[in-house]
Amino acid sequence: MDIEVSPRKLLAWLLIIIALLLIANIFAILSKLVFHLGPIYGLVPLFEFDREENIPTLFSTLQLLAASFLLVFIGSSCKSRGEAFIFWFVLALVFFFLAIDETAQIHELTGAPIRAKLNLTGLLYFGWIVPYGLATLILGLLSLPFLSRLPEQTRWLFVTSGIVYVAGAVGIEMLGGNYIAKGGTYDFVFSVYATCEETLEMLGIALFVYALAAYISSEFRFLRFTVRG
Known about the structure:
By secondary structure, the chain is mainly α. It has one domain. Helices cover 75% and strands 3% of the residues. Helix 3 (55-80) runs antiparallel to helix 4. The N and C termini lie close together (8 Å). Residues 225-229 have low confidence and may be disordered.
């Protein structure tokens, strides 16, 4: 059985899921912090963006794994055609690591020790931002030659998705850390920061997945998967 995927329909479905998760998160925040209704049979923590091991986390992990799979697909296709392929696999490894990190929360586990070691506060209160930020900067610089070889539309989709993702994962996270460092708690205000952060992350990944699917569709003339019974 052949399954043909339309990049635009794929993006539409991802955006619909993100919108539904955002609505569920807003209801969870309001029920918990405004109306004080409690966990409501466990439904509230299941959809809160500032909690882990729940449905938003699962969705983000699956998106990252999808991006990694598509990058491997492109890299393998480029290799078979005798074209440059190494950086596609590098990106696939990066997104596979991000998927693991999304589930295992490696950055959360390393944040406190790094903060204590470097005596960080303010915007750098969440200490993991330092190594992850540096890694992001290095990856961005290394990707410049790679980006210059891509078609213009793909290049700008990659750059835009990266900016959106980093704005949430690093930018909004820094603002949330600064709020906690100045005496704030994990209250309604922090929940707003977390909502903005996670929403931007999910949107950035969705846009990147769309960019990869559209690139496959234009460069290889198909985006089809065969399922054998």
